[in-house]
Design a protein that fits this description.
Shape: elongated
Bound molecules: adenosine-5'-diphosphate, iron/sulfur cluster, magnesium ion
Order of helices and strands: EEEHEEHEHHHHEHEHEEHHEEH
Strand order of the largest sheet: 6-7-8-3-9-10-12-11
Radius of gyration: 20 Å
Number of domains: 1
Main location: membrane
Keywords: ATP-binding, Cell membrane, Membrane, Nucleotide-binding, Transport
CATH class: Alpha Beta
Oligomer: single chain
CATH topology: Rossmann fold
Organism: Nocardioides potassii
Membrane topology: Peripheral membrane protein
GO molecular function, one term: ATP binding
Number of strands: 12
Structural class: alpha/beta
Length: 333
Amino acid sequence: MPDSVPGPVLSPVLEVTDLRVSVGDHLVAVHDVSFSIGRGESVGLVGESGSGKTLTCRSVLGLLPATGEVDHGRIVLGGTELTGATRRTWNEVRGTRLGAVFQDSASYLNPSLTVGHQLAEQLRVKRGLSRADAHRRAVELFTEVGLHDPEGVFHRYPHELSGGMQQRVLIAISVSCEPELLIADEATTALDVVIQAEILDLLGRLRETHGLALLLVTHDLAVVAETCERILVMYAGEIVESGTTEEVLARPRHPYTQALMGVATIGTWERRALEVIPGQPPSVGEDMPGCRFAPRCRFATSACTSGPVPLADLGGGRAARCARLDALEGALA
Ligand SMILES: Nc1ncnc2c1ncn2[C@@H]1O[C@H](COP(=O)(O)OP(=O)(O)O)[C@@H](O)[C@H]1O
Ligand code: SF4
Ligand SMILES: [Mg+2]
């Protein structure tokens, strides 16, 4: 029986159950991950670089790299089974019911077409709008995502836009078909802090106006603290803690979450990279007898490595994967 993160109160728009993803020569990079996202909910997926966040997202989007494979698990989007879906189904779902924005937005834009053409074409093909209506709607969307001179931007090529503007264009394209869920994977990482804050603000507003759910993936805990209602903490391919952002950050129950908080600074704290927790995560595919965080955990005892550590439901929508939950309660805040 897979252990699973307690779900949202609202009816789920996305249900991921027991998802296992391997890369290369059958090296498991995502270990039986289960979680769900409610309609209109904002969920942050956080963890150090290499923890399996992008592979999880790409599995949901049907966009795994050629060397990656879903070994088992289920992905259901608003009642539609995506597990083992055909390329045609994925193509229908992506850009209509599922939107995505990545860090390298430029590589998702066609360099030889104006950005307006690319958005209008999406509206024509996926929403059946006429040429004139698609143009009008594209300019509206460019306005909505905060692009100044939206009519002028319509006629520009991607290389004529800054990174922040390209990201806004990609967000406009992603929300143009009113998706149920928008996945933003490190969407603001490459941008400077001011633009990053503006884009996060924009995602929050779009969530409200378009009623979409948001899966925000980041290695920056401060971003989740500012943007998300619920948080999933991932370490070495596993979800190790989840709950409302407020509660998890106020009272972390997993030593890894606490370690992240010690280095990711929130609010007025200075922002730093997460990769300063001492030690290294296990390699992809590395088999470990118990807790995958044990070699780096200052609370580790022999109890932590004697067998698999399940994700324990702590009630109130919280869960944590630690063999010493009782002993450490109150010690981590
Ligand atoms: N195409 C790939 N081929 C081989 N290994 C990969 C590939 N994509 C990701 N990995 C490995 O899988 C692990 C998880 O990667 P990823 O999901 O990108 O992590 P994150 O997004 O959390 O930084 C990493 O160790 C990464 O090196
Ligand atoms: S199970 Fe043990 S090693 Fe793992 S996080 Fe808990 S205390 Fe640390
Ligand atoms: Mg990533």
